[in-house]
Structures are given as C-alpha cells and as structure tokens.
Design goal:
The protein has a domain of 81 residues. The longest helix has 13 residues. Strand 3 and strand 4 form a beta hairpin. It is of the alpha+beta class. Helix content is 17%, strand content 36%.
Length: 121
C-alpha cells in the first residue's frame, strides 16, 4: 500500500570563488508516495538532487558565481492519513521548535528575527 510522505530537503548555496562567508539555505518541501519510510526517503533524495544547480557563470549571488547543493533530508513526515491521497485540508508537514521567552515569541509572530531550537523529527 502506498502512503504519502513529506520530506524537508535541505539545499545550500556554495560560492565558487572559495570564500564561503555566507550560508544561504533553502528548505524544499517535497511530497512523495511510497510503501515504506526508506523508499520515501530514497524518492525524496532523488527528487531533491534534481534541484541542484551546477557551476553556471550566469547563476550568481551578489555578482559571485554559485551552485546549489543538496545536503540532506532534515525530516521525513508521514501525512496524517497516509493511506489517503492528500486533499484540501490535509496536514502535510509540521515543525516543532522552542522559543526562549514571550518577548522572542512575539517577535517571531511578527516576522522579526529570533533564535529557535528545532526538535529532531
């Protein structure tokens, strides 16, 4: 039986001039169907690697040539009702993390910069 999974694939931007003074990261969320967690992870990795960008002088950040590299899955989550096809309202993914206090929480809610500690999935 196929189940539905959501994988959080982590990508990092790498500067090709050798000076990695910034780590820009993308967390791509990928929906896959599979018969097992292992198969879902394999499918997600294969799909995430399709988003890698090799050296291309036209692909730059701040006028510096870059690549995008897949660096791993941060988490793999089974959808709430994995045996059903996701539809409107299906919870696909979630993040669980901790914020130090009420002031930081209010900053987070307002979209300001705060530090969060993620729990392992």
């Amino acid at each position: 039986m196929l189940n539905w999974y959501v994988a959080h694939a982590m990508m990092v931007m790498k500067f090709q001039d050798g000076n990695q003074d910034l780590y820009r990261v993308m967390e791509n969320v990928i929906l896959v169907s599979a018969e097992s967690d292992k198969e879902a992870a394999e499918k997600a990795v294969q799909r995430a690697k399709e988003d890698e960008v090799d050296i291309d002088d036209d692909y730059t950040y701040d006028s510096r040539p870059i690549t995008w590299e897949f660096v791993g899955l941060r988490k793999l989550i089974t959808c709430v009702f994995p045996e059903e096809r996701p539809t409107n309202g299906t919870e696909l993914t979630y993040s669980e993390f901790e914020i130090s206090d009420k002031e930081e929480f209010e900053k987070y809610i307002n979209g300001d910069t705060v530090t969060v500690v993620y729990y392992d999935a």
